[in-house]
Fold:
Amino acid sequence: MVINLAKEVPILHEQNITETLRTENLEIDLFITAIKGKLGYDLSGYARASIKRRIAQLVIDENVTCIAELIPKLLYSRQCQTNFVNRLTVNVSELFRHPISFLSLRESVLPYLASFPRRDIWIAGCATGEEAYSMAILLEEVGLLNNTQIHATDINTDVLKQAKTGILTKKLTREDATRYQASGGTSSLSNYFSTAYNKYKLSQHLLDHISFSHHNILQDKVFCSAQLIMCRNVMIYFDLNTQNSALALFNNSLVQNGYLVIGEKESLINSPISNLLKTIDEAAKIYQRKSSENV
Amino acid sequence: MSMKNNINFFEKLSTRLFTPLVVIFIFVIIILIVYVPSVTQEHTIKSAISTAENTVKQYKKIRSYYTKNVIKKVLSTSDVTANYDHEGINKVIPLPATFIHEISEEFTQQGIIALKLYSPFPFPNRKNRILDSFANNAWTALKNNGVKTFSQVDTINGKEVVRVAISDTMTQQACVDCHNSHPKTPKNDWQLNDVRGVLEVQIPIEERLINASSLNEKITAIVLVAVSSTVILLFIMFKRLVSGRLDNVHDALQYIASSDGDLSKRLIETRKDEIGQLAQGYNQMLESINDSRNTTKAREWLENGISEINNIVRELQDKTQVSNQLLSYLVRYLDAHLGALYWLEESGLKPYANYALEKQLSKLKTIALGEGLVGQAALNKKPLHITTIPNNYFEISSSFGEVKPQSLIIYPIIYNNKVIAIIELAWLAETPVKSLTFLEMVSEVLAVSFININQNENVLTMLKESQVQSEELQTQQEELRVTNEALSVKTDAIRNQQTILEKTNREMEKKAAALEESSKYKSEFLANMSHELRTPLNSLLILSRSLAQNDDNNLSEDEVESAEVIQESGRNLLELINEILDLSKVEAGQMQVFADTLSVNDFIAALKRKFTHMAEDKKLTFNINLAENLPSDFIVDGTKLHQIITNLISNALKFTEQGEINLTLSYKAQESSNSKHEPLLIFCVTDTGIGIAKEKHQAIFEAFQQADGTTSRTYGGTGLGLSIALSFAKLLGGDITLESEVGKGSRFSLSLPYVPHRPTEDTFNGVESTAIATNTIEHNFVCLPPPFEDDRNKLEQSKNLILIIEDDVPFARIVFHACHRQNCQAIVATDGESGLVLASQYPVDGIVLDYMLPKLDGGEVAKNIRANEKLKHIPIHLVSALDNIDTMNITGINEKSTKPIAHQRLTEIIESFAKEQKNLNILIIENDKNALYAMNKLLAKEKVTTFGIDNAQQALTLLKENTYDAIILDLDLPEISGFEFLELASSDANVTLPTVFIYSGRDMSEEDLSRLSPFTGNVIVKSARSPERLLDEIHLFANQVANISDNKEKHYLPINQINKATDPEPLRQPDASFENRTILLVDDDMRNTFALAKVLRKEKLKVRIASSGQQSIDMLNEHSDIELILMDIMMPGMDGYQTMKKIRELNQFKDLAIIAVTANAMPGDKEKCLTAGANDYMSKPVDVGQLLTMMKLWL
Structure:
């Protein structure tokens, strides 16, 4: 394995640095094309640096000597197909990530949403489900859970399976509780989980309001009209064009005066969507669809 | 014996055993001494008594024999008688009793046992026998036959006797008869077996007693001696046999204890008895303990060694360190004297450590396999034990000398049949066996650890490599992070910039507003000022003129000259004032530009008129030349042009003393396809005057600047002319350039954009050029005249005014007439700039905008309009022939249409502008007065007119009589509820239900929502922010109404899921094949179903709605008329796939047509739907036309 790394990291002493890089890039392109051709997932919109990293890790784990050797595996092994895509689209998530957003939602957005008789909330890129759980908890505390349906989607089938169970992948930590408090939590985080066999599971009442489905925001279309869409830390992996198309999808999926929440490190600056959205809270990354125009 | 101090006396076995014995012994002695005598006495007495009895028995026997055999026989012969007195008397024999008496007396006298006979009934001859107490007692005791013997010890004559009285009974009848019949008998009623007397025997016992007691003593003494000697003997024997030996054992044991486990002393025991066995056992135990100790020691030694070795190899990782430590330890531990350790590497057996070999170290080198003993051992993989050492071997040396070793071990460390290392050890003496054992035991451990060490080395090497690489990675990561940070900083910066920009923009807007204000003031000021200045000047000029003319002739020459000077000065002043005002106007942006048609000939004629004379005066030639390609006329602001040229020429005249002044007009056509280079008109004024120094070329164009400070004195002039000329030139879109050198004359070139004069159909001559636009601060737009006469001069307030910006004149004309037909007015511009100018000048209600325009295209125009505060509300409709207009991202326009445009469409467009102005009429049905008041207040600032009513019944009436654009409806109303109102209103033919907004505090159940779904999808729940939402919805609605959509739906649809085809065709006739067929819509989103249901119902389909998978199945079971299902895939709970599967499981629905509707666009999704049971599939957004076609297929 170490030897492999040595081969992949361009060593400064080598003369053909550019040659190596070029070949590597070619391999990556081929790999991505293979995925697209075989599975239909277009990962070319992901930022090159992050995809490169993940492919490198995949090379190590699959015990091959170069990226090109992944291609036959992809083409002929069912298991590898799902596995690769899942590995390349892994997301990390935690409860009440970036609590400022949740606090702002609680204070500024949810009261507005209370005026709708029914709410649909779409969590795009839910990973292992923590964001959807957090949203359910938030809704419960402001008393809006009952008439709300949370739709949690992700491209990765593995994490969806995990998320569906409602069981946390890690134990509840003090940091989780701190973030919960910082989000304006009024009771105690552990109240919403039941423990057994050293695992934490979200209470069924909350889980019932979340549906988990497979959805690819780059290729699939609008599937619901949502009052609130949260898509955080998914688009940082996309290049600019892909970001724009994802944002366009979100804009189309929002009802008029619906809200969009994006990730802490993300920005709408470079997107034409920013003209259609009014900034509600820049620090919390909350925007509202105010225009009546379609993109 | 010396060590038994710790046992106290009373605990000694001997004491314990023998003390009781002694005590018993003493006790026994005491008893003997005390008791025995009495016993003896008793015994003596008893034996005396027994003797007495025997004696008595004998005597009795004798007596009775005598009686029987003698007396009786004798007496039966009569002559003999028996009597007591018989002594010497013949024929008298003694009586039996007498017989006894006398015998016994004799015996008594002799000292032999005496017998007495007495009784209380003695014969008279015996009366002298005194019965003593004993006798009486005896008689008393014996007489009743109760006691046979009565005895007592008595002292008679100083001697102790035992007196034994025995009853003398008459056992024979002869006795009884005799006694009874005797004449001297005392008693004659004797019976048989009566007690006649007492037979007493006196037995002296004293002697006996003495004998007995001496015997006692003797016995006692013997016993005493015997017993005591026995005891002592026993004691001694005990001591010797038991106690002493036990002490030995004890000593031996204690010795072990005190000597800390010295097990060497054995118990010496020759005897084979129990203690001997104990001793033997003890000895054996010691032996075995010793043995096991030795074994343990040996094992411990081994184990210690091994564990120490383990420690060594575990703690250290460096091969050399380990080898050294290990070897030195081994050598010492195994008592060796020399040692060496080799590791097998690629090059052979490499020495890594040695012990005591420093001096001869040079001899140690890498050994190949098979080389020498070591190499051989490595090949054989077996240990070598050598006892005969060759001569040249290493010697063991210390400070005092050197000596050769006696024995060697070469031990290979092997694992899995591979040699890893070799240890060589040498001893001065024979190799201790334990060393070999140790090596054997330790070899495996060593092997494993050595392998580990080797591997660790490898790992370390690799680790180092990977560390290097990870460092590289880290650096890269660091760089990435830095880049990221930089990016995020940049983003922040950009955002900041944006904020700043916005702020700046806002400030600029404020400034612009302020500036406009100020420019308003400025123009007022200018107007005033010009008036104020000119008025006195006027009088001055007039009067000074009249003075100069001297009509009355009453002024002197001087006075007239003075008046002329005054006039001249006044004129100059006027000129100056004019120039200043001109300049100020230009600077204030107040200078108006007019577009006239200028005829070149007229122009130059005027110039000729003006300057020929002046030139002649100065003896200068003045020529005007015209280029050949010069057009005969063009559009320009003639006055200003004249002013510029005049200024240039007058300057030329002023500064030329001799020579000529030429004005050349030329035309420069478009140079290349680059449209930036427009056609130009060039006016060139050349002179042969003093010229202008290069440094001054810039300056002279500035206000009040002349070539040098003295110029005005020499040549006059205010210095304003050129600056005015330049500003005018710029105003007209041109420029002035200068070529000049001192002394070489000057050439001033004015270039202006050539605007051709376009002849039009309508008579256009003499159309006044009306001031069209003021040049605003931002733009210097020229507003060109319309291609044909439009309504700008005959505006009517009541009619809508439409601005047409279109360069295609025929089309513009069409639109123009269309407007008129719609009772609107219109103004026309053929380019963007003019359009903008018009828009800002006239109260335009709507703009029809072409895209392809000269200079500024439609997009730019729209942008400008939207950017302008006053104009941004004007609706713009883009009309273009371009077919990619739909895909272009043109912001700012409300709607677009493509040419050729249908007539109907045009009408609609114009109509839409009209609508914009109207306020929306909203009917509010709310019974809470406060809520009603609040809503009115909320909507007060909006473009709506509200009508409030508090009950549904009246509302219905209002609806019948009036038309409203929208209704805001509360659900909880008195009498008729909101729901009922809706149902009533929709079923009433006289009532058209407009867009409904439900605004209610009620907590909506699913049932409520489904009840509302046929009528509206806009439900607002009263909550903290609901007024805000209501406002938002109303705004959106108003926008929607203003927008043109193909279906004249007045209902507000969720436009993101149903594709709005901008289809200008009229609506299709509903398909007859759909009539009254029933389909089932399954979707959890009520708004979708509402919208789609509406569309489908228009096609005369009966639509049932289910909001969940389960509900759809229930509905299928309940209603048998469902012929087709539109199944949404993404639903919470049971999704579309599952629902379809379930439906297919039910037999009766196996063949029911199901069309799946999904947002997923992946290639596999269609297959997924079909596998789950769908007949077909439709992806969102749903194209209604396509859907209907598909449904027709499956129904």
User: Anything to note?
Assistant: Confidence is low (pLDDT under 50) at residues 1-14 of chain A. Chain A has eleven helices and nine strands. The first helix of chain A runs from residue 2 to 8. The beta strands of chain A are 119-124, 148-154, 193-196, 199-202, 210-214, 226-231, 254-262, 277-281, 286-289.
